[in-house]
Amino acid sequence: MIDKKNYVFLFSIVGLLLTTIIWSQSSKDNKVDDALFSEHSEKLSKGSVVLELFTSQGCSSCPPADALLETIKDSYPDNVFVLSYHVDYWNYIGWKDPFSNQKFTVKQSAYNTKFRYRSNYTPELVVNGKEHMVGSNRADVIRAVEKYSNLQSQNVIGISNITIDGDKATFEYNVNGKIEDNTIRAVLVLNERTTEVKRGENRHRTLKNANIVVAEKYLNDVKSKGFGSIEIPNIVGKNEAITLMLLVENEKVDITGAAKVAI
Q1: How far apart are CA 8 and CA 16, in angstroms?
Q2: Which CATH code of 3.40.50.1820, 3.40.50.1580, 2.60.40.2060, 1.10.760.10 fits the domain covering 156-188+214-262?
Q3: In angstroms, rounded to a whole number, what is the distance separating the alpha carbons of residues 221 and 181?
Q4: Which domain of life is it from (predicted)?
């Protein structure tokens, strides 16, 4: 007969074995995912791919998409441009996303009108302004990155002579390719921020967001060479890393070229 102490010991051993198996499988899965990204990134021809994620810290379905966005950012540092637009329509749940902006909700609505999709949703990922998908669907996102990476960008844009004066960044740009009827969108992103969410659907969770859009400005009078500026908002801390992105858009709001530089 096994006494009580032996039962406790036996269950402890079984629990430890199960934990080890689960941890090992989880680690194996993560390695497979990393290998998948590496395998795909080596096959790309480096066409520009712009991924715009519409997300919110108040949405319980968004953290997996936020995490995927960060993985893609790290896996495709050269030709993939990730932007995280935080919408404001989840704020009513009880947590006001500090990065939310009503203008980003309007931007999402404009995209969905273009796509003839009935309403906004999160997490929604827009690729090169041409199609949308659920932002946490890893397989679909990888396919989209591979698809657009292997298409030649219609515009090649460069950024130079960036200067910071107080809360303003000025820059010069040059564009190759068709520029008639095109616009340039200047976007300032905060590279990353970790937030403790105290209310709403993600209450008691610590969320990490990457490439958070904190400022956006359109340059409408596009030339082959020009200059522009963008304000750096107060939400950016003194020692926080930020990146400037320039996106070329045609009259259909398709993104035809992109460039980025850390500032």
Answers
A1: 12
A2: 2.60.40.2060
A3: 9
A4: Bacteria
Rounded to the nearest angstrom, the gap between the alpha carbon of residue 153 and the centroid of all alpha carbons in its chain is 20
Alpha helices in 188-253 (DSSP H): none
Q: How many angstroms separate the CA atoms of 104 and 114, rounded?
A: 15
Are the CB atoms for 163 and 169 separated by under 8 Å? Answer: yes
Whether this model's pTM surpasses 0.70: yes
Q: Do the domains 156-188+214-262 and 40-149 match in fold?
A: no
In tens, the pLDDT along 138-173 reads 999 999 999 999 999 999 999 999 999 999 999 999
Residues 6 and 3: their CA atoms lie apart, in Å, by 5
- For residues 256 and 153, the answer to whether their CB atoms sit within 8 Å is yes
